[in-house]
């Protein structure tokens, strides 16, 4: 029996895309409000980011980020590692505390089309959540949101990240 | 091209999500149907993409063999260890190191929650077979982690 072997990488990517798609579809069914769905997606992303950072640090062995530019570069390499895409880092704010990732293709939105009544849905919010969760684990408090979305007819997908503050180690209660 | 770990994490978040809602309603009887349904839709779609350039399967057994070998190894990273059938529409697929259970403790400690981690896969199998025009019931049996048996009962009309 000679059957074509599958391209494992490609299948895995489609598996993630399709599974994510069904999850979103289920959530749309569960919640009346699209904003709630977007919020849930962000939360799921956050939970994944918290764990993903461990995997990222152990796989790449990178050290501390020196500044936000360095952080942006590392998130860029995380995109390459986990989603197989290479986003550009652009649109730095003058103060240097905000930047954007531009994705010309996004594996999560392949095979996806948004119906008209879900145009408000932030389908890729999971990525924003993952960035926030992962950075929180390395003591950076950031905000992340979607500026442009291919699913809504934009040319690219643009994810904006804004640095809020550095999180300080808090002493456990009762310690010196 | 997504990395393997994404699917693992996504799966555990799906489990988390479906049970986050259920916990409030009832604690005793866990409702696995949502989770199974998410698996079903996923399986239904993935099989269509996987088999689009493949020759037609000869018969039911041939389809099952495909599920156990190629399908399983591409999604669960290994083949099914044992396939048994009574040739009357009942198939038992045994995986001794099931992907979603392999990270849980080996003892009896988490046996109670194990169904949560196999329900999605039951759905995936059912969905895949449904799209290959085999209607069936799929249940899972976990006796000791991390091995798992999937019982497939084909519905004949």
UniProtKB/TrEMBL annotation, chain A:
Quick one: a GO biological-process term for this protein?
Golgi vesicle transport
Write down a Pfam family by its short name. Answer: TRAPP
Q: Which SUPFAM superfamilies match?
A: Ligand-binding domain in the NO signalling and Golgi transport
What are the protein's UniProt keywords?
Endoplasmic reticulum, ER-Golgi transport, Golgi apparatus, Transport
Q: Does the keyword Lyase apply?
A: no
What InterPro entries has UniProt attached to this entry? Bet3 (IPR016721), NO_sig/Golgi_transp_ligand-bd (IPR024096), TRAPP_component (IPR007194)
Can you name a GO cellular component term? endoplasmic reticulum
Entry's localization field: Endoplasmic reticulum; Golgi apparatus, cis-Golgi network
**Family as reported in the entry's similarity comment:** Belongs to the TRAPP small subunits family. BET3 subfamily.
Q: How does it assemble?
A: Homodimer.
Record function comment: May play a role in vesicular transport from endoplasmic reticulum to Golgi.
* PANTHER family given in the database record: TRAFFICKING PROTEIN PARTICLE COMPLEX SUBUNIT 3
Q: What is this protein called?
A: Trafficking protein particle complex subunit
From TrEMBL, chain B:
A Gene Ontology cellular component where this protein is annotated is:
endoplasmic reticulum
Domain of life from the UniProt record: Eukaryota
Q: What is this protein called?
A: Trafficking protein particle complex subunit 6B
Q: What is the lineage of its organism?
A: Eukaryota, Metazoa, Ecdysozoa, Arthropoda, Hexapoda
CDD domains for the chain: TRAPPC6A_Trs33
Q: Supply the alphabetized keyword list.
A: Endoplasmic reticulum, Golgi apparatus, Neurogenesis
Q: What is its main location?
A: endoplasmic reticulum
What organism does the record attribute this protein to? Rhynchophorus ferrugineus
Q: To which protein family does this belong?
A: Belongs to the TRAPP small subunits family. BET3 subfamily.
